Amino acid sequence: LKRFQFWHRKFGRQGIEPERLQLYWNSASEGKEWAAKMREVHEVVQKYAKKLAEGVASGEPTS
């Protein structure tokens, strides 16, 4: 947890959105919760992939 907090702060100082670094604990009995969280993570990944593709297409620097 300390390493996660360290990297979360470090990324924030570098202008990287905090939602790009996530940490979750789930037990084996929490399959539905895990699936819901993975859908959320997938949406975040898709959002940043789209932003990256748009930035590459326009020649803008990306973070």
UniProtKB/TrEMBL annotation:
Coiled coil: none annotated. GO terms for molecular function: iron-sulfur cluster binding; metal ion binding; oxidoreductase activity. Keywords: Iron, Iron-sulfur, Metal-binding, Oxidoreductase. InterPro entries: MvhD/FlpD (IPR003813). Residues 2-47 form the F420-non-reducing hydrogenase iron-sulfur subunit D domain. This is F420-non-reducing hydrogenase iron-sulfur subunit D domain-containing protein. The keyword Coiled coil does not apply. It comes from marine sediment metagenome.
